[in-house]
Structure formats: C-alpha cells, structure tokens
Amino acid sequence: MPEQIKDAASILTKVNDYTWDIPMSYKPGMRVPGRIFVSQKLLGSLEHDTLEQTANVATLPGIQKYAMAMPDAHSGYGFPIGGVAAFDRNTGIISPGGVGYDINCGVRIIRTNLTADEVRPGMKELIELLFHEIPSGVGSKSKLRASDKELTDALLHGAKWAVESGYGVKEDIEHCEENGFMKMADPSKVSEKARSRGKPQFGTLGSGNHFLEVQYVDEVYDEEVAKVFGLHKGQVTVMIHCGSRGAGHQICDDYLKVLDKATRKYGIVLPDRQLACAPAESTEGQDYFKAMAAGANYAWANRQVITHWVREAFTRFFRRDMDDLGMNLIYDVAHNVAKLEEHVIDGEKKMVYVHRKGATRAFPPEHPDVPEVYRKVGQPVLIPGSMGTPSFVLHGTQTAMELTFGSACHGSGRVSSRAAAKREFYGETIQKELAARGISVRATHPSIIAEEAPGVYKPSEEVVDVVHQLGIARKVVKLMPMGVAKG
Amino acid sequence: MAGEGNKGKYEFLYHIADAKFRAYGSTMEEAFENAALAMFNVMINTENLKPVEVREIETTSSDIKMLLADWLSELLYLFEVDGIVFCEFKIGRIEKTGEGFSLTGKAWGEPIDLSRHSFDTQVKAVTLHELEVQEKDDGGFWVQVVVDT
C-alpha cells in the first residue's frame, strides 16, 4: 500500500479549506514553498511521495511562486502527476521530467445531434464498431500507412496537417489548444528511433488509461456557457483520450539523457535524476523544447485522425451524414506539456515556461489564446473521469491565472496501483457491473478492465468540486459514460 | 504482472501509477538480465513464450545506473519496432570503459501475435526515478527500476 501522510497537519500549513502549503523548511534547497490544492477529504488519500516530489520541484532554478499540485495529484516520477510549475525564461530551467513520457497526452470532446435515448439501444454494437475502427492496445497496428514525409509534416503541423490531408474540417483546428500545433516544433531534433517508434503507431489509441468513450450530458450546471459550447442535457458526446505514443516516449527518453549531461554541465543539483534539466534558453533546453513541440504535434495529429474515423463510424452506423449528426469538435486540451506563456507575477508581466504534467490549461475569458467563439466565457476545460465515472466540462477563469498559472486538474487521480487493481477486481465482474448501469465496455481483454476499474481512482466528482470551489475552473456540464473502448 | 515461476529473480514493489521492481543476481550481469525479465512480465506472462528470435544489444553509458536504463530501453525499443516480445536474456560482460560502462547482450523471444499473446498495459519507458544498482553485503547484486506504464 502507498505510504500515506499520517499527520499532514504537522507538515502542511493550511492556507484555506482547499489550499495547503509545504513550507520551505521541509526540504533543504527549496526555493519556493510547495502548494497542494486539495479538500480535507482528499488530503486523507494524499501519499507521502506526492509531497516529496512537489518539494523536489520547488528546488529547481528559476521556479516562480510555488511548486503546485492539483487536486488529483498522485506520485509519479520526477514531478508528481498533477504537478504545475512555472520557470522564469531567463533564470529558469526546462525539464522533460515536468512533461512526462507521453508528451501532449490529452483529451478532446466531439458533440453530436444525437440523444442518449436514440443511441442507447445500439450502444453495444456501436462500441464494438468503434473498437474495431480505432486500433488500440499493445502491438496494435495503424490503418494509416504514413510515409516519411507525412510523418515529418505531422511533427511540424499537427492537427493542421491532418485536416489539410482530409482528416477533418477547418473548424477542428480552431477548436484545439494552440490551434492543434506548436509553431516552434523542429522535426530535425527528433531522433530516427523516435520516428521509427511513432510511424507504425500513428493513428492508434494506445493502452493504459487511454480510451474512447461515448457519453451523454447528464447535468448542466451553467446553461449560458453550455450553450456557447454547444452542449445541452441528454445530448451524446464522444471523448478521445490519448497522446503521442512511442514517438513521444522516445523523445522524452532521448532528451532525458541529453539533459542529464546538461545538468552536470551547468552545475544544477537535483534531488531526483528524473528532474534532469537545463537552463530554458540554453541549446540543450531549446533542443528539447523543439523536439517536445514536435511530439505534441504528433499527438494532435493522432487525435485528429482518430476523430475522423469516429465520425466515419457514426455516419455509417446511424446512416446519417456528418452535417446532420453535427459532430463538431468542442475542444482539445493537452495535459502533459511545457509552454512559454505570459503571466503576471508580483504585479509584473513575465515570460515563463509553464510545465503541466497531468494538469490542464484553463485560460480565462478574453484571453487571446482562447478561440474567438469561446472568448466571452473562457477556455473549455475537459476533465475525463475514469472508466464508469463521469467526466466534466468546465470553463477557465481569471482566478486560475492568479492562483495556478492558468491551470486545473486533468482527471480523477489514481489511489490504487495496477497490480493491486488486478488482485482486487475481476475484469469480467467489473464489465457486468458496468453493463448493469448501462455502460458497455469493450477492451482487448478483461485484465485491462480490472487495471482501470472505477475503484482505483479518486471519485472524479470530488476532484472537480475542489477545482470548482477554488474557482480555478467552473463546472459547465457533467458527462456520463455509455460506452467505452480501450486497449 | 505475471511470472510466478520467476520467484527469487525479481519482485514487484508498490507504485501507484506505474510499476516498480527489484531484480537480483549473483552477478551484476544476472541482476540486469532479471530486470529485463521483470519488465516484460509487467506486460505479459513470459513463461509461455518461446525463444525463437534473437536480437543483440550493445550499449555504452555514462554510468552504471544509466547502463541499466539504456539496456532496458533498448529492449523496449526492439519490442515496439521489431515486434518481438522477449523472454530470455544473456549479458556477456559489463565493462568499465573510458566513457563509462558498456555491455553486450542478447535477448530471445517470439514475434508478437495478438491472437495468442494477451498483453496487459504497455511499459512506455524506463525512468531514472529511484533507479538503483547495488552490491549486497553478502555478495551478489540488486537493481531497482520504475517503469512508466
């Protein structure tokens, strides 16, 4: 079992009901305090390692304000999962450990004109079709036979490449964070190894917690914002959760080694080797940033191609055309990424590298990076639930800019390991229980279902409620799963 | 995580999101081999696999812990790109070189066949977090690895 914090009060300083600080005296070398955003209840399931890893991040050069952990935080490697930290462009660092292996792992939601009642009777067949149309799981091969040039174009132009190649419509790009591609991407910084891992997996969902889900709007919290997002009660939506596959994993792996050397070269002292880093504007730092951006673009292209196949499957299944089905992309967010952003720190505008590792950008109304159609209400913030638990759409707020560098949580956060899950749950039983609740699950085999059983995650409602109460994003709608396909 | 017949070669430790294990050996080479066995058993029970395909691995790294990470990463790379799931490992010798440490090793396994192989979650990468290579007081070695799943 994880070592939980026995007496959190003796380590943490309570700031308010949802904010707890790790004082700088906790660990030698901390440059700023740690700040954990959890409720009293979630504090009970916080692991000691999560605190430790948050404190480790606080020792990194150029860190601003606090090393932060979102309400869904749990221990990872290097940064905690759910970690947010911003580093000064000139005095700070950039670290692959603050992004993770699955560069631009992210989520998108597609709306439809279908109602839950229309879709429910054929749900089992529909999820079976989606499972077959979108390859997933270990060793799955893509239907897309990308050429070297196409791969390079995808690394350069992300979702934009996909749309221009016929996998979607222009509006899709406008509804992606960064318009679906980071401009500083440089495929020449991506190794041959990363390319050869990424190529056969381009257009696949992957395994682990990645999934494709058919959902319906179960509850509307904010009618006005929901209307702007094109959402209403009873409506069916589709959520896609996946990332940059082997390409991203290899880019991270390659640059960890480059930055491990750079750490010594620049005389940076680290409490954990996984935090390998370099000055943000150094050659090593920028090489990583350009390769990371290329990995992020691969992920956006990947989600866009999968979106196209989802639309085709729906068109065939319901025998209605795309316009009639109204399958517009609502939004697409990255939750493992580093970005150069402007933030106000101590009253001054500053350029910082914001690292979000298992955290979602949550920009406020009127921010220039929010698509024009959503500018008045703020960025859609998409929070996936675990299998069988609700997902949420929220909207960004000014409070997030003040408290969390414009960030919110990214999911519900694990409380139990995969190994423990397989001992505790039987995939077949979970599948039957979910079916009884009207949720069809299709996976490559039952142990995959056991590993991701609803009981291994913190309840998504609790995590999202902390985000809502803090005001770093506000709830718009709750989405309930109807069908899940996973690798 | 499978591989009951591999008792004594490695053990899994608790990690909430990923997989963490220790592997043992009377030599450092053997501990590295058993770490590879543990890593593949995160994904599949290797006991039912046959050593019909072989790949050679050569790697040089800045230090001994990085050599362990590089050895395992190389196997993951071959798993994904050549589509071979490995079940047996042999390292010739771990040697100190001018630049750090090097090894040459072999891995045997079979081509991935999804109609027969039932995989659990995929190991995405070998992290440097809590990576350890240690000599025991009574001789012998243990190594520790956290892999991202």
Q: What is the 3D shape of chain B?
A: globular
Structural class designation of chain B: alpha+beta
CATH class designation of chain B: Alpha Beta
CATH class of chain A reads Alpha Beta
| Overall average residue pLDDT of chain B | 93
What does this 3D model show about the protein?
The complex is a heterodimer of chains A (487) and B (149). With 487 residues, chain A is an alpha+beta fold. Chain A has helices at residues 8-11, 40-43, 48-57, 116-119, 123-133, 148-164, 170-174, 192-201, 223-229, 245-265, 283-318, 322-325, 398-403, 418-424, 427-436, 446-451, 460-470, and strands spanning 13-16, 19-22, 34-36, 67-77, 79-88, 93-94, 106-115, 211-220, 235-242, 278-279, 329-334, 336-345, 348-357, 360-361, 380-383, 391-396, 407-408, 440-443, 473-486. Chain A has a single domain, classed as tRNA-splicing ligase RtcB (Alpha-Beta Complex), CATH 3.90.1860. In chain A, the strands form four sheets. In chain A, strands 7, 8, 9, 11, 15, 16, 18 and 19 form an eight-stranded mixed beta sheet that branches. The mean pLDDT of chain A is 95. By secondary structure, chain B is of the alpha+beta class. Chain B contains two helices and eight strands; from the N terminus they run E-E-H-E-H-E-E-E-E-E. Chain B has helices at 28-43, 64-81; strands at 10-13, 19-25, 53-61, 84-96, 101-111, 125-126, 132-135, 141-148. In chain B, strands 1, 2, 6, 7 and 8 form a five-stranded antiparallel beta sheet that branches. In chain B, strands 3-5-4 form a three-stranded antiparallel beta sheet. The chains are: A alpha+beta (487), B alpha+beta (149). Chain A binds chain B through residues 1-2, 47, 49, 74-78, 81, 100-102, 137-140, 193, 196-197, 200-201, 206-208, 246, 249-250, 252-253, 256-257, 260-261, 272-274, 276, 414-420, 422, 444-445, 447-448, 451, and chain B through 1, 12, 14-19, 43, 62, 65-66, 73, 77, 80-81, 83, 112, 114, 117-122, 124-131, 146, 148-149.
